[in-house]
Amino acid sequence: MSRLAELRKKIVSNTRRLRFHRPEVGSRPGVLAFSEEAADTQVNVICYAPEVHLRNPEKLPELILDEKHLVWIDVQGLGTAAEIRRIAEMAQIPDLMLEDMVNVPQRSHASAHENRLLVVTRMVRPFDRAGLFVEQVSIYRYKNIVVTFQEAEGDVFSPIRDRLKLGRGPLRNGTSDFLVYTLLDTIIDAYFPLLEHLADRLQLLEHYALTRPTSALLRYLVESRNEIVRLHRAIKPQKEVLQTLIRNKQNLLGANVLVHLEDTYDHALQASDVSETLREMSVNLLNLYMSSMANHTNDKMKVLTIMASIFIPLTFIAGIYGMNFEYMPELHAKWGYPAVWLLMSATAFSLLYYFYRKGWLGENNREIDLTLREHLAEMQLPQKPN
Predict the structure, then answer these.
(1) What is this enzyme's catalytic activity, as reactions (predicted)?
(2) What is the strand order of the sheet 131-142 is part of?
(3) Which fold has domain 297-376?
(4) How does pLDDT run along the chain (386 residues), one tens digit per residue?
(5) So where are the chain's domains?
């Protein structure tokens, strides 16, 4: 392999790419496409009731048949086909629903069939130092079974597991619908710390864009914009998903759960608005960076132009008296040399004074800041109506 091919492979491997895991064109509906890059499948099971909490029980099929218990099967990783098919058969997942759960990524949506509910959503969590990991999470509910499919190990559901273990709140006494709501609510709430982190990061980058706009700053601005766009793409469809669940005419979720789900819908609206604002801020910040770089370049060009403007007449004078003509009276006069120096100095200082009067040698930023602050202080806020 040539060096150019190796470099191209390295660049492509380090770039986030959109990959659709789909069966071959013309395949029948319900065909699963398992990716070689998918993580190995790990299954965690929690079986619970008001007075029962079991982790990874041995007699899982028997507990599933006993509707007194609620069973949460958490599947992390989509790389082991046999294990996924076993879980699908145990939970009675239809082929079309299983296709949406395995062939990722799918559009975020909610669908129902014969008292079975499937919600496909996006979970976002921190990755590395500053990056975000966005993955598809599929939530399937049928009778007393809830199955979650995740693309990789790790999630934001640790508080839910702790609440089930300690018996806190109504979760242990709730239905499978309430568990579905809790999972969705946790996914939505996990967006806000990431939004706050990105907002703080944009504020810091804005400070550097105004005070120290360098070429190294551009990479961080582009990275932040890309992360915000990815987060916004994950958050925006959640409004439609929750709206579908709330307005579903088949009453797939209980009335008490719908009340809680409306609160989650409000949180999704708020997260979507904030992500949209951050997306616009990231674009404006790039424009601000470009303007600041242009202003700094103009300042440098102005300094060079002023220096050239000063030395052009001095070069002209030096060029005249540097000519080797025989009859040049000033060359033989005693006052010739100091007179030329006096003329050149007077010319340079005259130009400097002229540029200073024109305001081309730099502005008094402190004076401008104080003046602006005084003017802003004089502006009165609108008075409250009586």
Answers:
(1) Mg(2+)(in) = Mg(2+)(out)
(2) 52-55, 42-49, 70-76, 145-150, 131-142, 116-127, 109-113
(3) Methane Monooxygenase Hydroxylase; Chain G, domain 1 (1.20.58)
(4) 555 555 444 434 444 445 666 666 767 776 777 777 788 899 999 998 888 888 888 887 887 877 788 999 999 998 888 999 999 998 999 989 999 898 888 899 998 888 889 999 999 998 765 578 999 999 999 988 999 999 988 889 999 999 988 887 788 888 899 999 999 999 999 999 999 999 998 998 888 888 888 888 888 888 889 999 999 999 999 999 999 888 875 667 777 888 889 999 999 999 999 999 999 999 999 888 888 888 778 777 887 888 888 888 888 888 877 777 777 777 777 777 788 888 888 888 888 888 777 766 665 555 656 676 776 667 655 554 55
(5) 21-167, 297-376
